[in-house]
Amino acid sequence: MRQAAGAGTRLVQFPEGALVHPDKRVVATGPDGTRVPADWAGAAWGVLREEAERIAALAGELGLWK
Q1: How many angstroms from the chain centroid is the CA of residue 33?
Q2: pTM above 0.85, yes or no
């Protein structure tokens, strides 16, 4: 973000899923490796929230659209 802002970028977009942990394959794979309905109960929501807040703070600091 710092490098992009230094080059004149005014907008930063993160692709869908860029901040997902664990990734969808982990939460949608059964013990035998088959696909199952995704269960996001084990997602690290606190970590994701902290990361989103840090991104928003840095975007504000750099004057990027957030």
Answers
A1: 25
A2: no
